[in-house]
Amino acid sequence: MTTTLLELDGVGAHYGRIQALDGISLTVNEGEVVTLIGANGAGKTTTMRAISGVRPISSGSITFDGTDISTLRADLRVVRGISQAPEGRGIFPGMTVLENLDMGAYSRKDRKELPAEMDRIFELFPRLAERRSQVGGTLSGGEQQMLAIGRALMSKPRLLLLDEPSMGLAPQFIAQIFRIITEINKTQGVTVLLVEQNAQQALSRADRAYVIETGRITRSGTGKELLADPSIKEAYLGVA
Ligand code: ATP
């Protein structure tokens, strides 16, 4: 049976007079990996911020697990199970890997479970385990990205929001990050909404996908369908 975990219905968002989102409607079902692809400035990051609650919406509604969370504070959305690894990583550069991970667990009451959670994250990212005492700001770009994802996982989310996890990474790191996203989804049962410029990788990993253009959803389908679509190929996959 399909259970809808997240639903956006006609969501609008503005920055002053600039309309960044113009009626976004999409759903993410429990257990899925869904990707949002689109050109620069299309509204991908704003959509993620609207879902995590750091950007207020000006119209429409956001429902999570059957509850309208449109006006719920961002920190209370984390408590409900929504966690975001933001674009540009956003780790705490002066804190160690361990301290950064600990910050990700601020919303959890079951503190006794945290060491086991950290062990799971270190299994996913052995590189972070080796560098647990190193300060975040001295990690490589790829390692910082892993830390941002690890920190987001520390809140034990039901829905993980990943904004451009492959941005600025070397090819071997890109492949590794996508493998890990699949693993988080399959073995830990975390539902994933993924924003990506790297449409090829994102579509091949995603169950379903949405295309966003100037603040509106213009296409949707399975990852495979969109990968095979000539107009998508031309616009987003660099193939004429
Ligand atoms: P990119 O792939 O380049 O990160 P995006 O699809 O994530 O782009 P958004 O960052 O959501 O796009 O931006 C959507 C629109 O909102 C753009 O026109 C952008 O210029 C505008 N915008 C985003 N952030 C702000 C801001 N802080 N102030 C004003 N306008 C903004």
Automatic annotation (TrEMBL):
Keywords annotated in UniProt: Amino-acid transport, ATP-binding, Nucleotide-binding, Transport
What SMART domains does this protein map onto? AAA
* Keyword match DNA repair: no
The residue ranges of the ABC transporter domain are 6-239
Q: Does the keyword Disulfide bond apply?
A: no
Q: Name one GO molecular function term.
A: ATP hydrolysis activity
**Per the database entry, which stretches of residues form a coiled coil?**
none
* BP terms from Gene Ontology: L-amino acid transport
Q: What domain of life?
A: Bacteria
Family under the similarity heading: Belongs to the ABC transporter superfamily.
The protein's name: Amino acid/amide ABC transporter ATP-binding protein 2 (HAAT family)
